[in-house]
Amino acid sequence: MTGAGTRYAAVLSMPAGTPRGSGGASGGEAPPGIDAAEFRLALLEDTYEVVAGLELVTPALVLHPPGQPDAEAVTWPGTAIVREPTLPRAFAALHALGAEQAALIAPDAPDLPPLLLGKLFRALGSAPAAACQAESAGGTGRGDGLVALAARLPLPEWLAAALEDVDLDTPDALGLLRAAAPRPGQVPQAPSWHRLRTAADVRLLDPGLEGWENTRALLEGDPLGR
After folding, report:
1. pTM for this one?
2. What is the DSSP letter of 144?
């Protein structure tokens, strides 16, 4: 059975302005009246807390650019920090740390249910990769990039090659990865979820859900730690 030492979940921290092809997922646009840097960090910290609370999974943080002391400060002591500019290189770095399976998660999904990440890892029992698709604005159900991508490590050659041109923000990421796979069923899909990429997306947050404390406090005008 794959345990915490061989299963990693890593949140990507790629601030606004990071060039495309760098993994994507640069974080959300702040609502009016809220500092953009504080909002990005609140989303990142809440998303990290989701992965850090998973059982039998080791949390990690992927940084590009590599120098992000504010992002590192939200992590628990001992968290693995990966400094790589692309998804294939991030997966390779996690494999070098001992990961046999890994998931890369967008930093703007503060209320992501842990169950969805669990479904991705379970799907790796019968497939080399699995994806959680991002819901498009307006809740149409059409895919709009990915919330998370999980894979067995090391990556198969076809997936590593596909990820040179596909990141979490690529609109039809799931379709492109499936088209690159040698056989159908190589990239199964977990239930989709939303990301907070525009100021309007905060309406997607459910106040009744537990978690996302930092984002909640910031939106309510009472940031934690003040």
Report:
1. 0.91
2. E
